[in-house]
Design a protein that fits this description.
The protein is an alpha/beta fold and about 280 residues long. The protein contains ten helices and eleven strands. The structure holds S-adenosylmethionine (SAM). S-adenosylmethionine (SAM) binds near residues 208 and 267.
């Protein structure tokens, strides 16, 4: 026999009775203030190129100093975390602050727990506008190790430098946000042949080919645990036949990213995410 009272009860009341609702309402400000305090008092991360040694002081200047002093309004005695890209977090305290720099005394250096445990390289054809910047930001967050930018036959842009000099700053800022302690190593812009040479140094390399109807990326990477993996992504115009032939001659495996054609930046980010989510334990 169905319980008539229960049937008549609005669904949400089954989960939240009056008492639970009241306690939820009263605990809301508490949770909110906890989150606010956590955000305010959690040690903030800063990037330095200096060596990080326990018992020594590091000088922070330039953009990172501006962020520490003028944006975060950090005071002498407060705890901060420094990283220099070697995969470690250095915990320290602000010893002194002046107009242009801060001295941070290092108390402890430990391996960063947010470091990626897999080795993934993106080979990205140089592309228009700020797309490389977007790709750098997202693959830093996702945990890529390296990005090699290359020219391709259908690259259709005037400025072919890829503005790579700006990308390190993007990776630093993304690393600070996602709490990793290493940056994406960025190189290029290299020729198509140079890119193939670099790709062949890895254990497994795939090319995302928009006209490939066979193996999907997700199937191809099933057995790549512990290997150094690379994925090659074409520019807005895709690959020329000559380029695809070169890749296939080098036994680079073509893979599909599904039945829709993705923009180059979507393809890059989705591929790196797929590989890292599959490989990382
Ligand atoms: N101009 C090409 C066309 O219209 O067929 C599309 C190139 S797509 C915008 C840019 C790059 O993203 C491709 O060269 C490829 O590396 C990757 N890509 C996009 N969609 C893909 C898919 N469904 N499968 C495999 N690779 C894809």
């Amino acid at each position: 026999m169905p319980n008539k009272n229960l049937e008549a009860t609005p669904r949400r009341l089954i989960f939240f009775g009056k008492a639970e609702k009241i306690s939820l309402l009263t605990s809301f400000p508490l949770v909110l203030s906890f989150l606010l305090c956590y955000h305010l008092f959690m040690a903030k991360r800063y990037y330095t190129t200096e060596k990080l040694t326990i018992g020594k002081a590091v000088t922070l200047d330039g953009e990172e100093f501006h962020h520490l002093k003028n944006v975060m309004r950090t005071r002498v005695g407060e705890e901060v975390i420094l990283f220099n890209g070697d995969g470690n977090d250095a915990y320290g305290r602000v010893k002194s602050l002046d107009k242009n720099s801060a001295a941070i005394f290092i108390d402890k250096v430990i391996p960063c727990e947010h470091e990626p445990s897999c080795d993934v390289t993106l080979f990205q054809a140089v592309c228009k506008g700020d797309k490389l910047s977007l790709i750098t930001q997202k693959i830093t967050e996702l945990g890529a190790k390296e990005m090699v930018v290359f020219y391709s036959d259908f690259t259709d842009i005037k400025d072919k430098t890829g503005k790579l000099d700006k990308l390190e700053r993007v990776s630093i800022s993304a690393a600070k946000q996602c709490k990793r302690a290493s940056l994406v190593k960025i190189s290029g812009v290299v020729s198509f042949d140079e890119m193939i040479k670099k790709a062949k140094e890895l254990d497994e390399v795939y090319v995302a080919y928009e006209h490939h109807q066979g193996t999907s990326l997700i199937e191809a990477i099933k057995n790549t645990a512990g290997k150094r993996v690379g994925i090659i992504i074409g520019a807005e115009g895709g690959f020329s036949q000559n380029e695809i032939d070169k890749l296939l001659n080098q036994k680079i495996v073509p893979v599909s990213l599904g039945k829709r054609i993705l923009r180059t930046e979507t393809a890059a980010i989705a591929s790196v995410a797929t590989i890292i989510f599959t490989m990382e334990k």
